[in-house]
Amino acid sequence: MCRIFAGIIKEGDIAPILRIGLKRLEYGGYDSAGIATIYEGKIHVKKDKGKIDEIHQKLNLDELKGNIGIAHTRWATHGAPSKINAHPHLDCNGNIAIVHNGIIENFLELKQELEQLNHKFVSKTDTEVIAHLIEEYYKVFKNFKEAFIEAIKRLQGSYAISVISTYEPDKIFLAKNGAPLLLGKGKDFNFASSDAIAFIDKTKECIPLEDNEIAIISLEGYEIYKLGSGTKVNRKPIFLNWNLEQASKEGYDHYMLKEIMEQETSMRWSLNAQKIYLELISDYMDKADKVFLVGAGTSYHSCVVGSYYYSKLATVTTIPVIASEFIENYGSSIDINTTILFVSQSGETADVLNAVDFARKRACTILAICNVIGSTLTRVARAYVLQQSGPEIGVAATKTYTSQLIIHLLLALNLAKKRGKISQYEMDEIKEALNEIPFLAGKILREKSKEIKEVAKRIINKNHVFFLARGLNYGTALEGRLKLLEIAYIPSTAYPAGESKHGPISLIEEGVPIIFIAPKDETRKQIIGNMMEMKTRGAEIITLAEEDDEEIKSLSNIFIGMPKMNSIITPILYILPLQLLAYYSSVLKGLDPDKPRNLAKSVTVL
Ligand code: F6R
Asked: Which atom of ligand 1 is nearest to the CA of 601?
């Protein structure tokens, strides 16, 4: 799991542009990084272990000369993070440099083959094998494009690859299979990257590559070919409406905080998601007997909440499934009559794409909620709706989660209308609630931050935190727990409150914090019962409940009062204080919430 960036410019040196772009890609991996350029007919490389700024401080990456180059930020899969394992990697003679995102599954057998031909390997990576393979084929073909294609054809696994070579010093060779790769087209330059955010300040004209395609970029433009047949592909650029400002920190200490705070805006965008696609997806869902909702991590949690929406509002049975379990659990029973709504912020999560691939082979109907236009998921789905969150840089999903919830709610409403399951009065009430969401989000975020910071101080030294809820907000408990666990490294458990007495209660003793999500809905009476059970056992009760709920207040050690709202929108708004709680807990512990250890923004390996 890494990110790559490559470019050629008419005038000046490419290295500073690559470094800045790479910095924006750091969310995809940050254990080592490097840049290679071609200058005066030779390849020059600077790379090291660590984050890009640290490496730049040490090596001055901008000093690299040359108008063409490739760059990489790494999240180790094969070979520990080290200078030697950092990309770019070279062939034996230093004429070919490569960066790669993905995993080459047959690299050991290729390596053995090449070692027998006297190739010398310096790293422990799977990537280096590609440089040597191209080198070997170049000896045969004496034509770099052909050598590149032949080498790529030998690879099994996933890859987004970018290569420069002294044999073709004015071209960048690219290949894609199972990992994202996009071209950025300009007048006096051309770029390629795992994510358009690397070049979005230079051009908004973007060309996504498909699996099993190769591309060549130069100052003259771009060419795309099918890997198998060699057929030339004619693909026009799409226009990206994100700007760089949207993708920078805008004065906040961390992307995560910025992204939490901008939810008033992102929610407004999501509420305006394209109606025709919402309509199309709900048409498919309407015709289905049952619908699977599939996602990983936070996106899966949105599916959990979604399943309550579809059932409560539209009486449609949906089954939320964790993407990595989908094939094992339902693979044998899905077929042409199965409809699956995949949810993925990035549209590139390997577990999700693996399930998509399987489902496509069974002729299932593939629908999607996604944030990234041009991502693999949006390209393979029968229909998709963009969640319109804007780019999310912080590794932890925050604004993209609330956007996904809004899309689920809009789809459920559409379905309810189609099926005649909702009265005009109910419809008007929910519409009113929807309109209030951005305003309420802004109010909660502005008014609750200080208070939440104090709560964070109370929990950061605890050994364990529980999150309990019922009904619609069970997903909120799951998501609040994931945020705290992954960002602040505080062991946490989330349960449906009713289930807590079937086991987890044995962990409760004096002072164990339990966060109850307890809005005024039909589950309130029961959840009060659960609070009492826990209180009598000495738990520290922290509640998120409506501000005038005196009964819950009297049971709580810490009470976080939320504004009055229609219970249907509570999952979208009650998660906000929990996102802040995770953020402040992380910062108070001296951690970097944007870069939790061992995690990457989009997990592109199985
Ligand atoms: C948690 C988080 C991850 C992602 C998961 C799926 O904060 O960000 O759990 O939600 O890796 O990613 P997408 O939605 O891109 O498929």
From this structure: 8
List C-alpha distances in Å: 493 to 55, 191, 340, 515, 558.
Answer: 38, 44, 28, 10, 19
The CA–CA distances, whole Å, from 30 to 99, 268, 416, 532, 606 equal: 15, 32, 45, 46, 19
User: Which tens digits make up the pLDDT trace of 350-377?
Assistant: 999 999 999 999 999 999 999 987 789 9
Beta-bridge partners for 546: 562
What local confidence, expressed as pLDDT, does residue 123 receive? 95
The structure tokens 């899969």 sit at 77
Measured in degrees and rounded to the nearest 5, phi and psi for residue 476 equal -65, -40
Backbone angles phi, psi at 379, to 5 degrees: -80, -25
CA 456 to centroid of ligand 1, rounded, Å: 23
Our separate counts of H helices and E strands in the chain read 18, 25
From 325, 346, 351, 393, give the residue whose CB has the most ligand 1 atoms within 8 Å, as the site to mutate: 346
Nearest-angstrom CA–CA distance, 567 and 569: 5
Please give the single-letter amino acid code of residue 273: A
Q: Which helix (H) or strand (E) holds 429?
A: helix 424-459
Beta pairing class for 96-104 and 68-74: unpaired
Backbone phi and psi for residue 89, each to the nearest 5 degrees, phi listed first? -110, 150
The answer, yes or no, to whether any atom of ligand 1 lies below 6 A from the CB of 376, is no
Per-residue model confidence as pLDDT tens digits over 420-433: 999 999 999 999 99
589 among known catalytic residues: no
Using a 10 angstrom Cβ sphere, with 0-12 exposed, 13-18 middle and 19 or more buried, the burial of residue 548 is exposed
Catalytic residue flag (residue 206): no
**Prediction pTM value:** 0.77
